[in-house]
């Protein structure tokens, strides 16, 4: 153990410089990350961190041990090595596995710096906590929850098994929060009671009793018809005017606990509400990561590639290891958020840069959308878009050329860094720069120190990369005409050279930064997964064919690809369930509604979740959904014709009252409330309904 700690300390010290320099480079590139604290851990510690969701302490529960065993087996059999874990916090904490090769550690550090930037600037992470002076403070919050729940579980008047049972129930519903509202928003929601027309009376039970008194019934009739149990059910019922997306908050505020001895719902103990609140709060913490998986991983992969490959952060002896690392990350099978995100971010950059160039060229005298391709020499444009030679090859060999640019006030050059480098060289143009960087920047190892963000943007300009040099040729006349509509007849250029001189080489990066602030995966895919992206990336959809009894390619149409991906990412890829009625059938029952969007529920999983909801409501719980049914005859006929059978959508209601889950027909009005005519995939599921 002692040797292990010494080795870990030695490894951490060796990473001090890469971590420091990666932060400097990230900030030069325009990123604004949270401070990051790096930790080096061994295999077992990394597996524990993965089990705990990236934190060192969590509340006591059996699932952490289950997670640990699963990850340990994956690690042992080479089925999934974790290079790092980083959490959304200020400061962020990043854990690096000590067995990583040096090139892997550098790749991880650059990746982490980009994650920390995304955490600090994407508004969906701000729903968990305000970004004030204290920041998210996630580690402290989760540790506080761990202490609270551990203290509850250790109390002599509390059954520890009951604590775990409650955690099981809440965890099963942790994705039924309102992911589009802040964590504390539900506290301010005013729920209308069952007696909305009784003004000035906040007690629905008292309002009902007052109505009964007005009927002037005999005591016998009153006792037989309106008994105490009936009154209790009416007083407990809550009917939200609109569907409530935060199911957990509704259950916390209005739910009870089923008492098997009395067979009735009883009020919860205060500690039970504490547990529900703690786990719901943590669900909000992880919601930001679930909502932005593609964006966040793609963002980190993009900037990692710029730093490691484009800026040589991986040394010559490390580059092959890094290339292998990146190929494994991007080559993972299935829906790979790293690959999809990386390609979408590059597409965002390319579109913005191309638009900027086209806008400039359309202002050249005599150039129109109709004659663009005949009047503009695109080969010449490609030459003009190449970075300045001294910028492209920034380093010791171009120090004098950079000094000349700096003397002219060129914003692409860090004049102070160039001056320090010249001083360290001692004025001898043939001398090597200071190899230790004690008197000046180590420009041999880190040539980017000589450039500003503007210089780095030109050095990595997307339209000067070999794979994108033909991007301007692919612009259609229709697209050019559309851009021309928004250009006023001012600021004309006499020559192509003058127009290109005005091109903003940071336009792509600036656009990426804007998108990074406001989007989540759903809006990101909806906005930027274009026809061009689908066509050039060879994306397609596949579906299970009932006729052929196998999976087949279903479509290469961009709209179909987009729809399929949006279904995958909306509500974390989980079914959207809302509260429709807290007093269903006037019996105090809970009615949940599955917002059907063409994708049916996993009914077995839904039934098990319904049982968990019962534990938090204490009375019968119902779930309304729609399934697609296929008749045997229709399937046989479709197979003979080589066609897909047409199913019939049928509304169904599942009910659980503590015994068995039963199935019932669904009322037409309820079915109409959960069926979506058309899904527009904005971020608010409320708007899906017709």
From TrEMBL:
- Region of interest (Disordered), ranges: 422-444
The SpoVR protein-like N-terminal domain, residue ranges? 11-354
**Which part of the chain is the SpoVR-like C-terminal domain?**
575-626
The protein's matches in Pfam families, at most eight in alphabetical order, are given as: SpoVR, SpoVR_C
Biased composition regions of type Acidic residues, renumbered to the chain? 431-441
Question: What is this protein identified as?
Answer: SpoVR family protein
What's the source species for this entry?
A: Halorubrum hochstenium ATCC 700873
